[in-house]
Specification:
Elements: H1 2-12, H2 21-34, H3 53-56, H4 59-67, H5 85-96, H6 98-109, H7 114-134, H8 138-155, H9 159-172, H10 180-185, H11 192-213, H12 215-224, E1 226-227, E2 233-234, E3 249-250, H13 252-273, H14 284-304, E4 307-308, H15 314-323, H16 328-344, H17 352-369, H18 380-386
Antiparallel strand pairs: 1-3, 2-4
Helix pairs in contact: 5-7, 5-8, 6-7, 6-8, 6-15, 7-15, 7-16, 8-9, 8-14, 9-11, 11-12, 13-14, 14-15, 14-17, 15-16, 16-17
Length: 417
């Protein structure tokens, strides 16, 4: 908050506050939702292209702003100090921190000690700055946080909870659909239908409510998802995008294609996970591997996007940081790479060769540094079962070794699970 109302303007020599413009349009959508005006949810000036969950999460602060008698007028030259920011800012930042809590919960599940978790939290918070403080998109942070909690629930054999959490994430920001093919590959086949039904319910209910009130505006915004190449960053795919009114291009088709490509990665994950019976509870290596593949899937959005914005890079960076928590060296290197990409992405260059290509290179480097070694075969439990040995003979690491990257030296490599 200090950086938006004092440090930022002071450094730039400006009198107005440095505020995330995108947030105000979503706040207006939340205000209309609060007043049950669903027909105007996707009409100007909201510029909403996400699912209605992005507005739902801001309804509490909009109600508070209304009760305080403050205006939601979009900041500008004649409205440079909107006092609504003093309420909306802290709420948005606290809401975005859901992603930090989720990352920490998974790091604890992976056995990371407090020092590693502190480094993870610091690096994740710096990267999250681009999403919340700079661009004002708490829905991305909330969606990724819910996705992480959903993956954590899956690792603890709680598929019903996981389905509702991932479904809520989709309803807030459908970018997490990129990870759904990978997630489905690790769900038991007999549970797939129920899992999909639960995961689809939140988004379906919200979208149906908005579409029934104004079908044309809702479907146009959700399917075409316009973006402006003259305002944001062009990519090599911009010339091939469908051109819309006001100089915008459609981003929806490219995002759908990214989901198709992500399904190819899901097949790789599926072959590995289907090779063994369903596990009652995942090992830390299993969880790390799924997180890394999910980060790769989220990175595909940036690879195939027709028009890029800096905060689009963050979801993949967030999951890469969590996957890298297996060792100090990987976590430190991934943190440096993620922070560098975060700040380098804020430059205003629009040429795909001077901005998009370097950003994709930085994102690829971050994923490489966070990479998780592939498992080399069936886990010990099922290898033992295959030769008729009881699973109780497994060698387990003592509880004091939770922060270790491997089993104790006395345990053979085949028994590391």
């Amino acid at each position: 908050m200090v950086s938006t109302i004092w440090w930022g303007p002071e450094l730039a020599g400006k009198s107005g506050w440095f505020l995330p413009d995108d947030l105000w349009r979503t706040l207006i959508a939340a205000q209309r939702l609060l007043h049950a005006d669903l027909s105007s949810l996707y009409t100007r000036p909201t510029a909403l292209v996400s699912l209605p969950g992005a507005a739902v999460i801001l309804v509490p602060v909009v109600a508070l702003i209304g009760a305080a008698g403050l205006s939601l007028r979009v900041p500008g030259a004649y409205h440079s100090h909107p006092f609504a920011w003093l309420l909306a800012g802290p709420y948005e930042i606290a809401l975005s921190a859901v992603a930090l809590f989720a990352a920490d919960a998974i790091a604890e599940r992976l056995g990371a000690g407090r020092p590693k978790r502190a480094l993870l939290a610091a690096a994740s918070a710096v990267a999250l700055w681009s999403v919340s403080v700079k661009w004002g998109h708490p829905e991305d942070a909330v969606a990724v946080g819910l996705l992480l909690y959903g993956i954590l629930a899956l690792s603890e054999s709680r598929p019903e909870r996981a389905a509702w959490l991932i479904g809520a994430a989709v309803a807030v920001q459908p970018l997490v659909l990129l990870t759904l093919p990978i997630v489905l590959m690790v769900v038991e086949q007999r549970r797939l239908v129920a899992f999909l039904a639960r995961a689809a319910t939140p988004a379906a209910v919200l979208l149906a409510a908005a579409a029934s009130a104004n079908w044309k505006a809702t479907m146009t915004a959700v399917t075409s998802q316009p973006n402006w190449p003259t305002v944001d960053h062009q990519t090599v795919w911009t010339p091939f995008a469908t051109h819309l009114a006001d100089g915008a291009v459609a981003g929806g088709p490219a995002r759908a294609f990214a989901i198709v490509v992500a399904s190819g990665g899901a097949l790789v994950v599926g072959r590995r996970w289907r090779a063994t019976p369903t596990m009652a509870e995942w090992s830390p290596d299993d969880l790390r591997e799924l997180l890394w593949w999910a980060a790769v899937a989220l990175a595909l959005r940036s690879v195939f996007e027709t028009v890029m914005v800096a905060y689009y890079l963050w979801p993949a960076l967030a999951l890469a940081l969590v996957a890298a928590s297996r060792s100090w060296s990987r976590l430190a290197a991934t943190s440096i790479a993620a922070i560098t990409v975060t700040f380098a992405s804020q430059v205003p260059w629009q040429s795909p060769w001077s901005w998009w290509v370097p950003m994709i290179g930085g994102l690829t480097l971050t994923l490489f540094l966070a990479r998780v070694p592939l498992r080399k075969g069936p886990t010990a439990q099922y290898a033992l079962a295959a030769v008729g040995e009881p699973s109780q003979t497994m060698v387990a690491a003592p509880s004091g070794c939770r922060d270790s990257d491997a089993a104790p030296p006395a345990a053979p490599s085949a028994f590391r699970r």
